[in-house]
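About this split. The held-out portion is used to measure sequence recovery: a designer receives only the structure tokens and must propose an amino acid at every position. Recovery is the fraction of positions where the proposal matches the reference. Here is one held-out target exactly as it appears in the evaluation file.
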């Protein structure tokens, strides 16, 4: 009969020609010496969709995107991008995707248009194609007036926009964005997202991104929450938040132990949780319950917040902890996934094309 994982892989392989699904992943696993980065991940992405992979550092996001972009091979499982097997048809996959890395890999000593030309040459574009697309993309990213300027003079946001233009110059069917706005200020982050949505609308391109930022995940058509190498939830953001449903009240008192005990005695039907230094409770009508709570608790309340559920709350509900948005530690997965950026010349240069 075969195991469940074998059945999943068989279904993916049989449906790889489904043009409505541009990415198909079945029971994907990645093991290192001392860690399992991915432990049976399965999902699919529809053509024209903005799909987000949300999770803390070390969840397996970088491993997933590296496998889909052929920068790393899975230990087992199957994955198809644009109908191509990421292991056995890696050259075809690379030719059909664009990729925006976490780290900037522009040549600071070249101008904006020279960086674009280098990338276009690696993908075998003719000079005519390059000149036609260069103007369109640099205007789209609001860099046309800076095309002759060296990248070393650019701000972080300008560099990110140029990288976006570079990733699009060969007209990819799928654009992979690995932490696309990390380190950027909120205004620049918003502008990058404006470009992304304009691009999706104009080109009907599929966008796959990894992120730690909950506000970015809210922008996606669908979100997969990845934790410890496992997808723990996958749905539209609004549907994920409906899993919680109720309003959320978070409060902190001078003595949380007493406040928690009093709450449990007076409102036993509402479960209360300790989250760090706060107490958290979910209720049906927060506006009406708030004044009742204030009167019922004897320790002085230091802070109190009422809000609707967010993806942070979904993650907390499923995993029992907050997503670590500001975790700067380098984990084993990240160490294993490092590669020499100079190898990009061989990784992304198609071998079956020549410059005209």
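Reference sequence for scoring:
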């Amino acid at each position: 009969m075969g195991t469940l994982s074998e059945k999943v892989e068989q279904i993916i392989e049989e449906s790889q020609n489904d043009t409505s699904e541009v990415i198909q992943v079945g029971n994907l696993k990645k093991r290192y010496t001392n860690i399992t980065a991915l432990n049976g991940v399965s999902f699919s992405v529809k053509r024209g969709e903005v799909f987000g992979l949300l999770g803390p550092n070390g969840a397996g996001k970088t491993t997933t995107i590296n496998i889909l972009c052929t920068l790393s091979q899975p230990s087992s499982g199957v994955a198809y991008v644009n109908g191509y097997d990421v292991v056995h048809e890696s050259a075809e996959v690379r030719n059909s995707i664009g990729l925006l890395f976490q780290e900037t890999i522009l040549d600071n000593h070249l101008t904006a248009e020279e960086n674009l030309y280098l990338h276009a040459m690696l993908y075998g574009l003719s000079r005519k194609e390059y000149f036609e697309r260069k103007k369109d993309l640099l205007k789209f990213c609001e860099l046309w007036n800076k095309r002759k300027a060296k990248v070393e003079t650019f701000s972080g946001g300008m560099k990110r926009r140029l990288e976006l233009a570079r990733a699009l110059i060969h007209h990819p069917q799928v654009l992979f964005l690995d932490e696309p706005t990390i380190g950027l200020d909120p205004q620049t982050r918003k502008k990058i997202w404006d470009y992304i949505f304009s691009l999706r609308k104009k080109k009907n391109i599929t966008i796959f991104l990894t992120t730690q930022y909950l506000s970015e995940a809210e922008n996606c058509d669908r979100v997969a929450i990845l934790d410890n190498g496992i997808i723990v939830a996958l749905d539209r953001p609004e549907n994920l938040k409906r899993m919680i449903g109720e309003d959320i009240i978070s409060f902190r008192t001078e003595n949380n132990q007493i406040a928690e005990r009093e709450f449990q005695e007076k409102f036993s039907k509402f479960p209360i949780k300790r989250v760090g230094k706060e107490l958290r409770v979910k209720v049906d009508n927060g506006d009406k319950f708030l004044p009742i709570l204030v009167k019922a608790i004897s320790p002085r309340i230091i802070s109190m917040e009422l809000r609707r559920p967010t993806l942070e709350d979904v993650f907390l509900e499923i995993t029992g902890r907050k997503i670590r948005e500001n975790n700067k530690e380098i984990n084993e997965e990240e160490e294993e996934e490092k590669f020499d950026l100079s190898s990009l010349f061989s990784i992304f240069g198609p071998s079956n094309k020549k410059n005209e």
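Annotator remark: The CA atoms of residues 249 and 306 lie 5 Å apart.
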